[in-house]
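[Discussion] Sanity-checking designs against the backbone

I'm trying to build intuition for which residues belong where. Below is a structure token string of 94 positions. I'd appreciate it if someone posts a full sequence so I can compare it with mine line by line.
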């Protein structure tokens, strides 16, 4: 499966209550279950007026279908092509 970052513009996202986040996750889980394909919602970060979600599936269109079924915006869907961090500086190039 590929990994995708989804940016969702949600005005007031940082003000959502725990109950509201729980409801969103319930709707998202139902949308995942309804897809009938391999799909994993990894996590979501809330920052300002946006949600940044990490999902795994085979293609971006499936991510967009999840958004449609859940009634969520998907302002940006980007496939992750590499990952690095502080540890990368110490890795040997082969």
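Best answer:
Here's mine. Compare freely.
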């Amino acid at each position: 499966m590929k990994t995708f970052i989804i940016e969702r513009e949600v005005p007031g996202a940082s003000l959502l209550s725990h109950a509201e986040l729980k409801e969103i996750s319930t709707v998202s889980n139902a949308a995942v279950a309804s897809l009938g394909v391999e799909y994993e919602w990894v996590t979501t970060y809330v920052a300002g007026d946006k949600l940044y979600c990490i999902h795994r599936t085979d293609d971006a269109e499936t991510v967009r279908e999840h958004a449609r079924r859940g009634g969520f915006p998907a302002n940006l869907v980007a496939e992750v092509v590499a990952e690095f961090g502080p540890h990368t500086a110490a890795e040997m190039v082969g």
